[in-house]
Write a structure and sequence with these properties.
single chain, 375 residues, alpha/beta, TIM Barrel, five-stranded mixed sheet, 14 helices, 38% helix, globular
Length: 375
């Protein structure tokens, strides 16, 4: 039997009254590498930015002897594992619930390993990028056994670098055979690489026809709009899987949706999900205009942080390019004196101005009305 229930904090006076624990899944730390491939698409629409990007591309080619591939560049979220864990714990504890937090950086398990070293009860989890024909998907792999986590991540990385259907079968079969492991199809309807709806839908159907038995839940994503999330239940029903929350936090805002449970541990929570039971709570801030939330996330990423755990105080310290001759270099070092071009400084300054507390009501109004969510 599949039982997925949704509740919304702004509608329910006490949505947590029948539960003891809150579970936050799918949050990122500065160990995630977020690709910069979106920059050319955006810069083409902004004349001033288009010019400076073109100049930087020319300079890069002169220095390195090849064209700039933006997919070799990346930015890192602002929070450390310690900070990201605390953000989620604080939100759940404020609801009167005991917190379980599963951080899932892209293709990397360093964050939970660091938390375990700090004596935190953190499952070893990862968001695995799975290339498929014409596109890719993301799977949330939660609660890997500590004795096998390194070997399993190596296998996932091997498939990511050199996709092979037989290896994918083997990995998913191995993970599914571990009763404490949870496999989640993250934001399944998001065509992130812009392959096109037809290609993406075809890829999803082909993947699920082959692997549906090994997928345990479909994610409702806290950083995707309701217009997309509302279509996921039909997909989950088609393949007889429960829904699950996944906040996808990249900045300082806590996850906008969590799971509610009475589980006495994370493995017990996994057992609930694998048996088809899930209770999801959308938090008040999910209802805010989607564009305004993305704007605030961008402000968090571009903010200076004098207390950054790795000493990366400026936003340009946290944006990198993997140069073929010198390896990954921050934009601070790439610009030499650490000062970005004038047009970039102007863009950053304008963005930060829009984030000023006095202007936030007007900016929020410009992004439209709150999302209308229907369970």
């Amino acid at each position: 039997m599949i039982s997925s229930t949704l509740s919304f904090e702004w509608r329910s006076p006490n949505p947590c009254k029948n539960f003891r624990t809150g579970v936050s899944l799918h949050g990122h730390t500065y160990h995630s590498h977020e690709l910069l491939g979106f920059i050319p698409r955006i810069s083409r629409r902004i004349p001033g930015l288009r010019t400076v990007i073109a100049r930087q591309c020319e300079r890069y080619q002169r220095l390195n002897g090849e064209a700039l591939n933006f997919n070799r560049g990346y930015w890192t979220p602002p929070l450390s594992p310690r900070q990201a864990y605390k953000v989620e714990v604080d939100q759940i504890s404020a609801l009167g619930l005991y917190p379980y937090i599963s951080l899932t950086d892209h293709n990397e398990i360093l964050a939970p390993l660091e938390l375990i070293e700090q004596n935190q009860r953190a499952p070893i989890s990862v968001e695995w990028t799975v290339p498929l024909t014409g596109s890719f998907i993301h799977l949330g792999i939660h609660n890997l056994p500590s004795s096998k986590a390194g070997t399993l991540q190596d296998a996932m990385q091997q498939y990511k670098n050199n996709p092979d259907e037989t290896l994918l079968d083997d990995i998913l079969t191995t993970l599914h055979a571990m009763p404490e492991v949870l496999i989640v199809f993250n934001h399944p309807l998001w065509d992130e690489p812009k392959a096109g709806n037809t290609v993406h839908q075809s890829m999803i159907e082909e993947f699920l026809e082959r692997h549906q038995r090994r997928i345990h839940a479909f994610e409702l994503n806290g950083l995707r709009p309701w217009s997309e999330n509302r279509l996921v239940p039909a997909l989950a029903d088609r393949y007889m899987k429960p829904l699950i929350s996944g906040g996808d936090r990249h900045a300082r805002e806590p996850n906008a949706c969590i799971n509610l449970s009475n589980a006495a541990g994370f493995s017990e929570f996994v057992d609930e999900l694998r048996n088809g039971y899930s209770d999801i709570l959308f938090m008040n801030h999910y209802r805010h205009a989607f564009g305004a939330r993305l704007m605030q996330n961008m402000l968090d990423v571009m903010a200076d942080d004098a207390e950054h755990d790795l000493g990366w105080m400026h936003w340009s310290d946290r944006v990198f390019f993997d140069c073929p001759k010198r390896g990954p270099r921050s934009m601070t070092s790439y610009w030499g004196n650490g000062n970005p071009p004038h047009i970039v400084r102007a863009f950053v300054g304008m963005t930060r101005l829009l984030g000023h507390q006095r202007l936030r009501p007007a900016v929020s109004l410009a992004f439209g009305s709150p999302q209308e969510c229907v369970g």
